[in-house]
Each structure stands twice: as C-alpha cells, then as structure tokens.
C-alpha cells in the first residue's frame, strides 16, 4: 500500500529568497517612515519662530489632563441649551474612554521612547516633561475625541473645535513631546472612539421632520388668550420651572396651573382642559400624556412646551426650542397627529413590558436620593444584570403569530428611527403605524453579545432582535401578569395587550414651516 506524498504547501514551496526579500522590504519601508517621522520632527524643532515659542507651550499646557476640553464642556453646559449640554456630555464621555485606551493600553503595548529634547529651543519646551512612552499622543487623542464627539451633537462646533484639536496636536510636536506619527495615531484613536459613541447613543435629530404633516391656519393668540398652561415645575430637573418667567413675558394672558406633589395631576389637567380653548403643557412625558388625553376628550388643541428631560414629543412636533414653541402658539397653526392606545389608555411616545418596566421602577426608587441621571445609570446596570425572559405571543392584523421569549418589548407611536434598541426620533407622527421591537437578553452570553452590539451599533443585526410595524397588535403574556409602562410611567399589571393606533386623533399646535393644505 503506497503512501501519498504530502503536497507541499504554497508557503513551503515559496523560495526562501522571496520571503526574506519581502521581510527586508517591510523593514526598509518602516525605516523610511521612521526617518521621515524624525526628519519632520527635527525640521519643526529647528524652526526659529517667536510665534511658535509664544503660543505652543501655553496651548499644550492648557490641554494637560484635558483641562482645555473640560473648560469648553463647562461653557457649553452653562449655555442652558439642551443640545449644547448633550454635546458637552458626549465629548467628555469620549475623552474618558479615549484617555483610558491611549494611556493604559496603547502606551503599555507600544513602548516607543520620547523624542530627544536637545533640538527644541528651551523657551518652547513644555513646563511639564512627560515621563510616559510616546505612542500614541494622549493629548491628541483626547483633543480629537472631544472635538469629533461634541461636534457630532452640535455641528456648528465642527470647524472651531477640530481646528483647536489640530493645533493641540501640532503643539505636542512643536514642544518636543511627540513625533508626528504619535500625533496621527492619537487623532485616529480619538476619531474612532467619537464614532463609536454615536453608534452606542445615536445623535438626537432636533430639526423637525414634519414635511408629511398638513398644517392648517388656526386662531392666532399673540398674548396667550384662551390658553391654559399645565406645568410640572420639577420636571426635567427643574427645567420646567425655569422656563416659566419667559413664558409669562411672552404670553401674559395665558392662565397657568402649576402641579404640586400632592395634587391629583390627572384630575387637575381634566378640569383645566374643560374650561379653555387651547391646553398647553410643560412637563415630562407622563404629564404630556395626561394632557394629550384631556385635550382629545375635550376636542381642543394641545400645545407642548419643551420642558422635560428629553422632550421627545415636542421635538418630533417641531416645538423646539422654547422660542419656536412660543412663536407657534402665538400663530395658532395646527395639525393632527396619531396617538397610540393600549388596553384603552393612550400613549404619545412609547409603551413597554419587561425589563424596561424594571428599569423605570429602579430609577424611580433612587432618583429622589441621587438624581435622575445617576439613578438611570444604576437602573440600567441592575436591569441588564437581572433581566428575565417574558413569554409573549404576538398577533398582527394579517393573523401572523410570533411566539417567543423576550426580555425587552418596546411599542412606539409611529415608526422610530434608527433601527435597533436606541430609537431617537420619528420621521412623521401621522403614519398610522405602531413600531414593535423585541429583544432577548435573558442569558448571560446573550447579554454580553447585546452589549457589544449596542456599543458598535450592530444591534439591528442581532438575531435576538426583531422589529415589526402594523396598525394593531394583540399580545398575550401567558406567564403574566406584568407591569406595563406608558411614556416612562409605570401602569397596571396586565396579561394581555391590545395595542392599536388612533389615526390623527389629536390636534396639536405646530410651527408653520410644514406644507399646507
């Protein structure tokens, strides 16, 4: 019995000379890149320039420990503009991640020595000489991470922030702290982390997308005549209370009803709606939902002022920022939009069953002690750790049935964008559709995969994620009952859900920028 001679692999058949030649070529290309890197550094170091001597050291010192970017973030936060505050938060988050990777991971892996300072003029040297390794430049990485992340949220900042980040990167070479390739690698790292933040938490689209809404001329109310404003002063961490002076000045004849902690909010809102021509509301999603229900029952328009934490409904209506909403109320232009309904109770944004209701319960338990933002972080961590499966049977209008176990079930009034479990906005509010999304994260392995997919923006491709759109869904919860949440407010326990859309059921005040009929 003869043995078959093994066929030589391509690698073994390749002449040894060719392999060694390629290795020599790669080493030669790397030496040329290093030589170019050192030559560029030397050329900048030997440039005699009073301008560089005067400006580069203060700039690089300002960027030490990201003080420059933290200061800019503070100014954005103090501006009072919600989008500016989001830009500040996104930028600082990007810096935190980038700094950790650059200083604690990359510098430990690539232990490149710092450039020699003998060629740099003494007056141009930074006062603090770095002792860590050189690759990549942490200053440059943090600079671009902040600039790219913040400008993604607030595009008007793109040119000034990126220009400043570029100057910070150049200052690291001019002051002798880094080679040019260190700076380039830092720029690439910062850009990547900033991009990842937009995948994990998509940028809110503030510009109204209401081209499909038919806007009609209504009754102008230049001073707020016939309008009653329901306001929850504590909503949005007190933002609702802070807008009240501006609203009073702009609409002096508007009647204002402030909700107290011990008041019957739903009853107060119903009473106000029965005695006015337009019901205005300034508060969180729950308050807006109650106002929408009262306005619909009384057949009067609803005006939503942006005074909550996220203002989803106001933004999707185009009633953002506050000045735009006030102008729309004065003009009196109206449109009709859809409402969602579950088991006879309406919702204006979203409803959910499963882990999200656990999230809401945990957040409400902690928010009075540590504040809503930090309570949300605690709630998200605990919810993901203890997420349990919910057995759901879903039937749509076509009779198709889904029978599976999920941990998160989301229902939206209208189709949300983008796909995935971080929906941000709706393209229109009168498409007569419900947006159903389900996600299973009950197993430890699936949770890890979901976290990775959320961070990289690939959750819509995860096999545990499914998305449907229809005008009505029948949902059975055989292992229920489970608590339901509407617009972020915990509701009753249910073992079945009849979810449907109410087409153009609510008249709302909107800006006059959409097409007219």
Description:
A six-stranded antiparallel sheet has the order 6-5-18-15-8-9. The protein has a six-stranded antiparallel sheet with strand order 14-13-10-7-16-17, with helices on one face. Strands 2-1-3-4 form a four-stranded parallel sheet, sandwiched between helices. With 517 residues, the protein is an alpha+beta fold. Helix 3 (50-62) packs across helix 7 (158-174), helix 4 packs antiparallel against helix 5 and helix 5 (82-109) runs antiparallel to helix 6 (138-153). Mean pLDDT is 83; it is low at 8-13 and 206-211. The protein has helices spanning 10-13, 16-46, 50-62, 67-78, 82-109, 138-153, 158-174, 180-200, 235-250, 265-273, 285-298, 312-317, 322-331, 355-370, 372-386, 444-456, and strands spanning 227-231, 255-258, 278-282, 302-305, 334-342, 345-347, 350-354, 390-396, 401-406, 408-413, 416-417, 425-426, 434-439, 465-470, 472-476, 482-486, 489-494, 496-509. The longest helix is centred in the N-terminal third of the chain and has 31 residues, at 16-46. It contains 16 helices and 18 strands. Strand 8 and strand 9 form a beta hairpin.
